[in-house]
Records
---
Amino acid sequence: MAEAHLIIRVQAEEIYFNQEEQDKIKALREKAAKEKQEQYCEEHKYHCFRCGLKSLVEVQKGNIAIDICVNENCGAVHLDPGELETILKDSGLINNVRNSILNVFK
Ligand SMILES: [Zn+2]
């Protein structure tokens, strides 16, 4: 009877240690994944979402800064959150932005 009790206790400790090790492994994996993602984001910071080249130029117009891809075969325009709404509210700003974009290719 006492033996059976001992066996159960040892198994419980093994489960505890395994869980602790698993938690450590999980934490290390999560840390590595986070660092990998941060490194990827840093490396691709100025890359165009469309053509993938490191070709973004920031054009400041009024109170918004728009990232424009200067790759001649692309020309994608990147907007930060809220910038589209700002542009749509002001039709004059749309023309300013359009002219700024066209000037980049002149
Ligand atoms: Zn591009």
---
Amino acid sequence: MAFPAHADFLIIGAGIHGLSTAWRLAERLRDAGQEVEGRVVVLDKSGIAAGASGIACGVVRNNYFQPAMRKLMAHSVDVWESDPKGLSYQPVGYMQISSESMRDDVGQIYAQQQAIGYESVFIEGAEASDAYMKGIFADWQAQHITSVLHEKRGGYSNQTKTMYALADKVEKLGVRILTGVTVTGFTAENGSSAISAVETDKGAITCEKVVIGAGPWARDFWDMLDLPRQISIKQPDGTMVEGVDMWRFWQLEEGVLQLPPETGNADDGSMPPVIHVDTDAPLMSTVDGSLITEDMWGIYYKPDWHFGGIQGGASPYKVETPVNEVQIDPYGPSSPEFVASDEFAHMWVSALAHCQKRYEGTMHKYHREASGGIGCFTADSFPVFDRFCENVHVIADSNHGWKMIGVGHLTADEALGESQELLEPFRFDRFEKGELHPVSNSPYPWS
Ligand SMILES: Cc1cc2nc3c(=O)[nH]c(=O)nc-3n(C[C@H](O)[C@H](O)[C@H](O)COP(=O)(O)OP(=O)(O)OC[C@H]3O[C@@H](n4cnc5c(N)ncnc54)[C@H](O)[C@@H]3O)c2cc1C
């Protein structure tokens, strides 16, 4: 097939957001009796799922302290639930299990979940929390836990399987996915800021609308669009902080314990909810009993048949390299610089053993292959979903995004001219207006 000279809707990035946008656009065009073929094109410099979407742990949850994030996640969970089999989605639920410093925040999340009709249960108190967890796993033994939020919806999905299913879905609808095409810049209309063509290493493609879902490469597209590397942020007291970097990178460390996935099942034999524990209990090594940390720590894990073991991660760490010097490529496990460390493996397996007796002494089962990758976060660590240069829709999810499969749908609706209320709290001008999202006591930059 010839390289296209034009696309009405040009989507950059064959990750979760790019393909979700293509899915919705194609369905809407089809339902309106319009042609899809030749009109919706997805470009990717590498391939389908070559970015963060191909290495995500796949957890889908609602547990966010920020009301706007919760509403958006509830919408995305609806999208996951619209085709669980087709999207390789495991609706096993999700548990936020916390020590005292997070009890009030999580209690508020629970109350607000009830208000939006998102089904969850909240258990408070050390004894009640322990009993609730032992009702699922008799070997539960995590310390200092005083609350459990059990979300009955959510769960996880099997990243690459989901991505290939999505690609199949959109191609059947008439979307063309072009891989091995690198976007190098944009051309604006004479006398207007609107983008009339996307420049690539294979030639220019003229277009009406552009959607960018570039995951960790958001920084580079921001530069291509001539958007500011540094921004001003209005503080709650009305003062402005100037010169804040728009982007920063964090390294996400994840790994797999190579036990039969069934090892992680609940006592009744079912697949358990995704477990997320944040606690200030001292963490001791499962290798030699030494103290790993007395500070707050957090992990998440699930039995995963796609990864072939118990898969999960811990709090990320900030990449200290100046933001414009961070090498994103080669990405993920191929990076010589950004892969999960031995310290992570020791901490994570010890934390699993802290939570459940069945994982004691299993360090030798840790899978030593490189895993993890970097995420590109915004100045306040929450997404920017906005339109720039009149016709360019940017999905910069600040690494929250696998679970946010619905954002592509909402962006497609915006590209068709329908402004979406759920995306309003994520506009770029929130920084200068000081309309920031509330911050929780979680140790993660994404809760
Ligand atoms: C280790 C890890 C675990 C994670 N776990 C979870 C999780 O459990 N749950 C969750 O909700 N989120 C998770 N995330 C975050 C989530 O993976 C990302 O937020 C999401 O996948 C981003 O999707 P995307 O479509 O924006 O970008 P990506 O999936 O990164 O896709 C961007 C695409 O753009 C392409 N591209 C880049 N530059 C160019 C160019 N110049 N020209 C053409 N194409 C280009 C890339 O090749 C890539 O395929 C995790 C992230 C990491 C790193």
